[in-house]
Amino acid sequence: MSSSTHHTIGVVGAGTMGRGIVQLFVQAGHRICCFDAADGAAAKAIDFVTDMLQRQVAKGRLTGHDVERLRARMQASTQMSELADCDIVIEAIVEDLAVKQQLYRALEDVVAPTAILASNTSSLTVADIAAACSRPERVAGLHFFNPVPLMKVAEVIAAVRTSAATTETLRALVEGAGHRAVVTADQPGFLVNHAGRGLYTEGLRIVEEQVASPAEVDDILREAAGFRMGPFELLDLTGLDVSSKVMASIYEQFQHEPRFRPSSLVAPRVAAGLFGRKSGAGWYAYDGDRKLRDA
Ligand code: NAI
């Protein structure tokens, strides 16, 4: 399938990630059907995306006419049955295996047997999600990063039973939208969150062992090692509440391999609500998005 193929894409889960996925693919020329279990959430997501498109008019990147055209290609669905015409469904609902499995069972009753079902899961095993399906060969992971339109990479995760055709269609879909697609195996953390362990886990160990402060680690990695942000700045951006779950999940999935053991510095900070930017303080203190100083 060529990257210029236009699909009707179902986006299930209209939260932070679902909204970004809607925006990315409507701008890439696809039709979007957005569904969320919460009342009014899908419509709100389409309004949000339309707002984001309007901002591009102000910057001269789109015209008002473009926005109208794109708006007409996005539909908010109140019933899952409205996804029947979708040839690709991207799921971005809550990170809970049982809830996801239940959704996939219901989706298989709605979509065509050839439709692809892709999960934006950040830490679950894709094979576990696919195990709920009667056609696991059409199930894969499609892991975007927040904010989706700006983070120009997505992991296409091929689970053990994912067909080569499914992987290839998703790879072409991502690249057709101008993002880089990285095809990875269905292993803990896939590529990005596995590689990230080296950065976060060792960064945290350095602080735990009082070798240096978080700000010193960040400064050195930015200034001397060429990173755009240091690990503590990144943890504050993602939110330690979210990152701590990824740390725990990867440690668990690697059968408690010591090199993935979450730092003892993390749990007390999560309990204290020091999540990062979203809570106003983490490794640094914030005024909105502006970093003030070490917390
Ligand atoms: P969110 O909480 O912002 O949005 C989830 C949405 O799914 C909500 O609107 C909720 O009403 C809806 N939902 C829940 N259960 C549903 C169901 N059974 N059927 C239909 N809709 C349902 O979550 P967020 O942050 O967008 O995450 C979604 C997925 O993306 C998760 O699997 C998460 O691990 C993954 N992810 C999140 C990233 C992030 O930075 N937030 C980054 C990469 C992946």
From TrEMBL:
Stated name of the protein: 3-hydroxybutyryl-CoA dehydrogenase
Presence of keyword Mitochondrion: no
E.C. no: 1.1.1.157
Keywords attached to this entry: Oxidoreductase
Membrane-spanning segments: none
Gene Ontology molecular-function annotations: 3-hydroxybutyryl-CoA dehydrogenase activity
Domain 3-hydroxyacyl-CoA dehydrogenase C-terminal: 189-286
Boundaries of every 3-hydroxyacyl-CoA dehydrogenase NAD binding domain copy: 8-186
Lineage: Bacteria, Pseudomonadati, Pseudomonadota, Betaproteobacteria, Burkholderiales
Root EC class: oxidoreductase
